[in-house]
Each structure stands twice: as structure tokens, then as C-alpha cells.
């Protein structure tokens, strides 16, 4: 069997099994978690390459929390020491004073030996990680930080629609968001084909749904649209070739391509996409998959600005 990119997260059958999130504390409006929302106290660390972090970046912006929760961006090239703050002066995060995100992880748990991931929500007072629980971070930004939301900001997780949103989130996570990784990191043919088939079956179902409505749950953007978008926007640039998800390109799936462009052209979405970071991260930091480290020039991002025709 081939050597896995992430050996600790690969089963004996060659299946990629994503590690659980280690830090799952929450910041709650009523303080029941032991932490309350507080302007200026917390710092969101993201990679512009990472779809899980990209969600939090979009939600933070849409809700008007950019002046409330500060932002740190790591270098897209992750070396053996993990995510690096080499984009900042003196190669240190200017607020946390650390060179590697792993320093905050180890300050929180000196025995931590797992993979250091983004997004990470950091308490700037203690320098420790509050959460790397990416599914919960965005939901809490919508529900627990309401006192700091900008006037007129969208309700991304409306109470009457939560059951429908949650059901979609579950299937999209397993088959699409994580599905591309299960295909790309598989080290066995059967594991790869299982993930590949589940991915495209789910994309077909979503395409049929989106023929009937502008967004996944009616005519408003919700949390589940953001979660799907961050995978779709990486599809042709990375997942189609690098992860062997190649039945079709996104640009060859008319409904999903128009839907993705609709979101991309919505304020707060396209401005957060950095195709350079995305391509350099995947093609350079997965040497078991792309040993040459050569980064493809295409595809041409101009297509994302073509009118989408959805309303």
C-alpha cells in the first residue's frame, strides 16, 4: 500500500480518517461556558488555503465582526513544524508574539501530539487555544456573538430552518467537504473509489436541489451555503486534479458552477478567496501526492466573474 500523507489518520484499509478536534471550549452569550464574547480579546488564526478556516473568515466578515475578533493569517506553506507566521514582520504574529501556531497549542496542552489545524480561536490574554472546533466556531459566531453583529447583518442560522440546515450540513460534510479529502488522501483503490462515488452522488443531489432554489435552503444564504462554497471554490484549482476528483470539473457542472459564481460575486465571499495561497498550499505541502512540488498555473480565475444568471 502507498505511503500515506497523514499516517496517523489513515486506516489499515487505506481510508483517510480525520482526527477529532482537540480544543472545543466555547464562548457563549450567557457566560455558561466560562467565557463571554468580548471585543478585542480573541484572535482568529486562519490559513487562506484551508476550506475549514475559510468558513470562519467569511462568517466573521458577513456578521461585521472584523473589528471585534482580530485576524491572523499563516503562511500557506506548512513545514514539518506546522503553520508559520512568516507573513508577519519578524516572522511572528504581532498580537500573540509566536512564530508557529503550534506554540499556542502546546501552551494549551503541553502533551499535544496531533496535527495542528486551523481555524484556531485564541485567547490573547492567556495565549491559549479556545477552540479549533471548526463546525462550532462559525455557529457560535452567528448565535453567541449577536450583541456585536453589525446592523443589518444576515441571520446565517435561523431557528426555523436549523433542522433542514443541520441535515444538509451532515451529508455535505461526509460526502463533499471531507469527501474530497477521503478521495485525495486514500492509499487504497477501494477507499478512493468509495469516496469518489459518494462525492459525485452528493454533488448530483445538490445540483438537483439547486435547480429549484437559488440557495440550499430557499432564497437566503445560510451557514450550509458557506460550508459548500469553500469546497466548491477549490474544486477545479485543487480537488479535480490533485485529489483525483475528476469525473467533471465544477465548471462543467452547470447548476453548481452558476451557484458557486453567485456566491463568489456576493460581497464577503470572493474577496476572501486567494487562489495563490490555495494552490501553493496543496501542491507544495502534500509531497506524497505531488512529490515534484510543481504548482499548476491554471485554471484561469476570470471565469468566476462571469454573470451567473441566478435569481
From TrEMBL:
<dbReference type="GO" id="GO:0004364">
    <property type="term" value="F:glutathione transferase activity"/>
</dbReference>
<dbReference type="InterPro" id="IPR010987">
    <property type="entry name" value="Glutathione-S-Trfase_C-like"/>
</dbReference>
<keyword id="KW-0808">Transferase</keyword>
<dbReference type="InterPro" id="IPR036282">
    <property type="entry name" value="Glutathione-S-Trfase_C_sf"/>
</dbReference>
<feature type="binding site">
    <location>
        <begin position="115"/>
        <end position="118"/>
    </location>
    <ligand>
        <name>glutathione</name>
    </ligand>
</feature>
<protein>
    <submittedName>
        <fullName>Putative glutathione S-transferase</fullName>
    </submittedName>
</protein>
<feature type="active site" description="Nucleophile">
    <location>
        <position position="50"/>
    </location>
</feature>
<dbReference type="InterPro" id="IPR047047">
    <property type="entry name" value="GST_Omega-like_C"/>
</dbReference>
<feature type="active site" description="Proton donor/acceptor">
    <location>
        <position position="181"/>
    </location>
</feature>
<feature type="domain" description="GST C-terminal">
    <location>
        <begin position="158"/>
        <end position="282"/>
    </location>
</feature>
<dbReference type="Pfam" id="PF13410">
    <property type="entry name" value="GST_C_2"/>
</dbReference>
<feature type="site" description="Lowers pKa of active site Cys">
    <location>
        <position position="282"/>
    </location>
</feature>
<dbReference type="InterPro" id="IPR040079">
    <property type="entry name" value="Glutathione_S-Trfase"/>
</dbReference>
<feature type="site" description="Lowers pKa of active site Cys">
    <location>
        <position position="239"/>
    </location>
</feature>
<dbReference type="InterPro" id="IPR036249">
    <property type="entry name" value="Thioredoxin-like_sf"/>
</dbReference>
<dbReference type="Pfam" id="PF13409">
    <property type="entry name" value="GST_N_2"/>
</dbReference>
<dbReference type="InterPro" id="IPR016639">
    <property type="entry name" value="GST_Omega/GSH"/>
</dbReference>
<feature type="binding site">
    <location>
        <position position="83"/>
    </location>
    <ligand>
        <name>glutathione</name>
    </ligand>
</feature>
<dbReference type="InterPro" id="IPR004045">
    <property type="entry name" value="Glutathione_S-Trfase_N"/>
</dbReference>
<dbReference type="GO" id="GO:0005737">
    <property type="term" value="C:cytoplasm"/>
</dbReference>
